[in-house]
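Notes, Module 5: Reading structure tokens.

Key idea: the token line is not a picture. It is a compressed description, and you learn to read it the same way you learned to read a sequence, by spotting repeated patterns. We will look at two proteins. The first is printed below with its tokens.
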Amino acid sequence: MSQKLVVSVDASEGGPELVTVQDVLTHVIELFQLVTESDPLNEDLIAWKLVSATMNSPFTVTAEAVPRYPNVAIDRIAASQVESFVSNYSELKEGRIPAAWSGDKPRKTVTRLLARSRFLINHASIRSVDG
């Protein structure tokens, strides 16, 4: 059974800042970057393939975990990556930087994500779908 993620990003309306297409797309890209960085031991084994994108507000992307290399069983790896991301994202929402995101590269991603969330993004959600 394949693991899928659905990410929705709702831009702020009426705020002082102009929200661009680049802002919203970058937000989605960086959320998926944090998904892969949530499980550093397995980040190179799977990729998140675009399944669909809806341009209506909120902008929504559905992605499916696929193996980067032939003959790699990824079901448990993808489930672990998603579980780690959910835990890390919850920790971040509580005001703490998770250990998996404390390195230089992920910390910079988190900093940009938080800044964008503060001024440009009204709401972002990510949910797992088995399918």
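Here is the second protein, with the sequence above and the tokens below, as before.
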Amino acid sequence: RVKGYLKNITDNEIFEFENKGIRNNNKITYSYDDVKNTIKINDGEIMLIREGNDFINTFVFREKKSSCNYFLKENNYDVDIDINTILMNVFDNSILIKYEIIDSKCEYEFKIEMSEII
């Protein structure tokens, strides 16, 4: 079971989700609202890939330099977005990331918790 939220701290908006997911070693996969989400956890790096019918949005969170790419499938067009990781905590059953989109100065908080289905 995967449960979490994406909060726009700047605009005080929150998007919550809860669904079944698959955890395999350092990879978590789940779908919500027809968007496939994949989280890959490596040493000092978290990669979040969100893929919908029209787009692929890839975040690479690191303590030093983070990055984001938004790819529109139909137009074969992509945009790189500079982000700053404010906080990145990885625990056995949860991940918490706070980050800022540098151009817009918008701050976000992403949290995900994993639990076993019994």
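Summary for the second protein:
- The chain has a mean pLDDT of 92.
- Residues 45 and 62 are 5 Å apart (CA to CA).
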